[in-house]
Amino acid sequence: MLKEYRSIAEVAGPLMLVRNVEGVTYNELGEIELANGEIRRCKVLEVDGSNALVQLFENAAGINIATSKVRFLGRSLELAVSPDILGRVFDGLGNPIDGGPPIIPEKRLDINGLPMNPAARDYPNEFIQTGISAIDGLNTLVRGQKLPIFSGSGLPHAQLAAQIARQAKVLGSEGKFAVVFAAVGITFEEADFFITDFRKTGAIDRAVLFMNLANDPAVERIATPRMALTAAEYLAFEQNMHVLVIITDITNYAEALREVSAARKEVPGRRGYPGYLYTDLATLYERAGRMRGKEGSITLIPILTMPEDDKTHPIPDLTGYITEGQIILSRELHKKGLTPPIDVLPSLSRLKDKGIGAGKTREDHANTMNQLFAAYARGKEAKELASILGEAALTDVDKLYAKFADEFERRYVSQGYNTDRSIIETLELGWELLDILPVSELKRIKTEYIKKYHPRKDELQDLEG
């Protein structure tokens, strides 16, 4: 039988101190019963001898210290899972909010999970097609990878997230692919956009959605990504599915951590964030990956808005240390009207070389990728030079590179949010753009590939290799 305590000593904001408790553990759930019978939930943040510091899930208003009582449930926050969670929409604590029936659980899983043993990890090496050329062609996503998207306030990361969730697939095994989407601290309008988009396109049939709104408690915001990753672990390692997890917005999650840390009067770290922010983010990100002996995998795309577009801010900075690259959205490209405004030059996928090439995408992928990067970089330099010295200062070849840069942004990067390009279409488009340049400038591509894939290959058969 559960013990009830009438020893609430203090309530300060979202925190409450309960004295003279026995056998209470860190992260344990509790219930507070008010004099009028109303039940509110809480979670243990700290245990010091017989004192327990708990955080409230709901508002502290109306809690009378003298007449309220607390009981601890002997378990941490859990998610009820079964194959029926696919196609459903939940709140940040795993309760259905789509009007459907409650989930009849196959089991209940602790949302804090366990970190994956490094020795049990399998190396990510399978291509995931997102249908977005700037990602597939140049910063390739690999199954089991952690690839964050760095955005800024007002940039269209929500549309990009919905597009990736709608279009992503592992080639050859589409039937076993699922998306777990967690929205953390977003507005009602954003939540409605995601749910409507998933339903309209039919993507919801293979998706699990967790929605935490901006007016929900901070403690729920901290739980939401863990709920999503617990659902992903169940689908990946028990149902053998390839799971793509998209979490937006990690910045809201970190702000909730800072709020709780300040309420606990902890010594702040950089910019007021708790000193354990790196460790906390790692407990989320490192739950993604592939496991030896398991068919399923978890690929993670966390999305974060960089405060003041600052890449050195603690949240993007620490995220960059833990993950394998980043996709960066550019305010400058957004002002030009490019959709999606992905800035390919500072973006990076550290595992892209493992997921491309013969048998995965196509043999010429690595060569054309390097040539496109180099040509775009030189084209941007030529345009900067023209803006300073005038176009007359450019050589004929520089003018071709400047033209290439413009066409590359207009046709390759900017494809809209409803265009789903196969990897072959992306590679062919890359070749079409490289045809703007003289063949003598294609120094990063093997001659055999030029003869085989160049749009004017029939004219170039006499090239010397």
TrEMBL record:
<dbReference type="GO" id="GO:0042777">
    <property type="term" value="P:proton motive force-driven plasma membrane ATP synthesis"/>
</dbReference>
<keyword id="KW-0813">Transport</keyword>
<dbReference type="InterPro" id="IPR004100">
    <property type="entry name" value="ATPase_F1/V1/A1_a/bsu_N"/>
</dbReference>
<dbReference type="GO" id="GO:0005524">
    <property type="term" value="F:ATP binding"/>
</dbReference>
<dbReference type="Pfam" id="PF02874">
    <property type="entry name" value="ATP-synt_ab_N"/>
</dbReference>
<feature type="domain" description="ATPase F1/V1/A1 complex alpha/beta subunit N-terminal">
    <location>
        <begin position="8"/>
        <end position="74"/>
    </location>
</feature>
<comment type="function">
    <text>Produces ATP from ADP in the presence of a proton gradient across the membrane. The V-type beta chain is a regulatory subunit.</text>
</comment>
<dbReference type="InterPro" id="IPR055190">
    <property type="entry name" value="ATP-synt_VA_C"/>
</dbReference>
<dbReference type="InterPro" id="IPR000194">
    <property type="entry name" value="ATPase_F1/V1/A1_a/bsu_nucl-bd"/>
</dbReference>
<dbReference type="InterPro" id="IPR027417">
    <property type="entry name" value="P-loop_NTPase"/>
</dbReference>
<dbReference type="GO" id="GO:0046933">
    <property type="term" value="F:proton-transporting ATP synthase activity, rotational mechanism"/>
</dbReference>
<protein>
    <recommendedName>
        <fullName>V-type ATP synthase beta chain</fullName>
    </recommendedName>
</protein>
<feature type="domain" description="ATP synthase A/B type C-terminal">
    <location>
        <begin position="354"/>
        <end position="453"/>
    </location>
</feature>
<keyword id="KW-0375">Hydrogen ion transport</keyword>
<keyword id="KW-0406">Ion transport</keyword>
<dbReference type="Pfam" id="PF00006">
    <property type="entry name" value="ATP-synt_ab"/>
</dbReference>
<keyword id="KW-0066">ATP synthesis</keyword>
<dbReference type="InterPro" id="IPR022879">
    <property type="entry name" value="V-ATPase_su_B/beta"/>
</dbReference>
<feature type="domain" description="ATPase F1/V1/A1 complex alpha/beta subunit nucleotide-binding">
    <location>
        <begin position="131"/>
        <end position="349"/>
    </location>
</feature>
<comment type="similarity">
    <text>Belongs to the ATPase alpha/beta chains family.</text>
</comment>
<dbReference type="Pfam" id="PF22919">
    <property type="entry name" value="ATP-synt_VA_C"/>
</dbReference>
<dbReference type="InterPro" id="IPR020003">
    <property type="entry name" value="ATPase_a/bsu_AS"/>
</dbReference>
